[in-house]
Here is the input.
Amino acid sequence: MSESRDARILSLEKLANLLPSPLRPLHGKRAAPLALPDNIVCFCRRTATDLNRPQRGRALHHRFVLILSLETAVTVAVDDRAIRLNPEEGLLVLPFQFHDYIQPEKEELRWLFITFDMIDVAPLQALRFRPFVITPVVRQTCGELVEAYLTRGEGDLTSLLLAVLLQRIRQAEPILRKHYKPPTAPGLIMQVNQLAQSNEDPLSVKEIARSLGISPSHLRARFRASCGVSLGRHLRRLRLEKACGLLRLTQRRVTEVAELCNFTSIYSFSRAFHTAYGVSPMAYRHGDRAKKTVD
Here is the structure.
């Protein structure tokens, strides 16, 4: 057929004419095991300044971040790569990928963000560092998703539509464009983040300083001067973000999560978690929305 897939999918009559009469009406296509997105948040950024909120360091969290550039080109610095997103292009940032935004074409923009949790990361690994075109089908599905998100009581429909949207994106042709290293990377915060996330057990300040070849006191002073926050607070933030992922995406006990994230007791973990997010670890696991963000 010479018609594009996008054109064909909009014509139900033409598609219906292609369907054969089934020889075995009770035997059809079976669904593969499906992991649906959960805890979905949709929002829009309208200025380049707002893209990098909060300002303290490159963003890191345990959630997926789906970005759709509707107006204005901006470069997304993801880990050690810089990916230019033009209007009508998108990108999926995976959990625990450091990212921020540089080189905006202008201050005014319209970028749509959809963040979500998903237990099974494997189906989306192929989208790592892979920008895509916002095709008419992707745009239509995304519009239906946002409409469902804005409608009270349509949580299930929002989740199903996001699953469909991700499948459309996986099927889309990737944008073949050479990515380059961000001009400011790797800075001190990036080096610290990479070291902190490279080991299963959290590293101490002394161990990080030793890896960087400087003294702990020098590292603390440089980090505060360049990032505007203490190194200890930043490392606690990384540990709490790891805890969020373990609480949402695994069935580990809260005490086990606290131990894996290097908290000395369940009490210190619960106190730090509530201070950062405004809810207890167990309430967060059961879906209560966080009232605060980690500073």
Summary: The domain at 38-171 is CATH 2.60.120.280 (Jelly Rolls). The radius of gyration is 22 Å. The chain has two domains: 38-171, 188-285. Residues 231-249 form the longest helix (19 residues).
